[in-house]
Amino acid sequence: MGTKINNIRRQTPSDGILLTSWLEKSGLSRSEISDYTESGWLQRVATGVYTFVGDNPTVYGILASYQSQGTISYHIGAASALELKGFSHYVAMGKPAAVIFSPIRPRLPKWLNSAELDMRIVEVSTKIFGEVGVEQMEYNGRQLTLAAPERAIMECLLLSPTQYNLMDVYYLMEMLTSLRSGLVQQLLENCTSVKVKRMFLYMAEKAGHRWFVKLDLSKISLGSGTRSYSKGGVKNAKYDIVIPKELADYE
To answer: How many structural domains comprise the chain?
Structure first.
């Protein structure tokens, strides 16, 4: 019995969780799981979810565990995905947010939103991009699903100004000098949000990125009519948008 739990311990990073179904596949019976819980090896954190006593699960560690041990639909998106890829221009005050995109059904496990973790979870459901621009990343020996930078910056625009200030999104855009123009083109053609498409193109052109000139704007539908994204802002005639004066004047 001791050999079983020690083998599982060696396979389990201290930032992760253990699902009952996976423990059973790893050779533990329900009674053994109960015994290890009573003897202080394991602790139950939610229905069907355990950790080793003394471990410190994190949001990303938990998502990686769900991905490796079971089935869960999600991807880390927006600025959270960009940060994991090394793009970040400021340190958030207070507890940082993990922006997680999930389907309307099934949603993320409910216990995650009430657990005391290292990050607060902002769960988003949207179909405006389809499945384009989602990729895998190695994280502590496991895999995480996250938005590629090309999609992540568009997700930032989708969530602005509620979740992100437009100036902060532009600072991130300035860093994205090596986006893949083919993937950007595909995302923009698939995207159903006029706001995202117009603001993305405006910011990309303003930043002077080389990949911008490779885009075929004739294939991207931008809708019609002026769209305002800032009360009392400045109008940009080319993209027919009203934007914050701070952004318009920024050089």
So the answer is: 2
pLDDT per residue as tens, the chain (251 positions): 568 899 999 989 999 999 999 999 999 999 999 999 999 999 999 999 999 999 999 999 999 999 999 878 899 999 999 999 999 876 667 889 999 999 888 889 999 988 999 999 999 999 999 999 999 999 988 999 999 999 999 999 999 999 999 999 999 999 999 999 999 999 999 999 999 999 999 999 999 999 999 999 999 999 999 999 999 999 999 999 999 999 999 99
Question: How many Cβ atoms sit within 10 Å of the Cβ of residue 69?
Answer: 20
Verify that 79 and 186 share a domain, yes or no: yes
- Which domain does 34 fall in, by range? 2-52
DSSP string across 234-247: EEETTTTEEE-HHH
The answer to whether residues 28 and 4 touch, using CB atoms and an 8 Å cutoff, is yes
Q: pTM of whole model > 0.90?
A: yes
- 6 and 122 fall within a common domain: no
197 and 146 fall within a common domain: yes
Q: Do 220 and 98 fall into the same domain?
A: yes
* Residue 144, both tokens: 């995480």
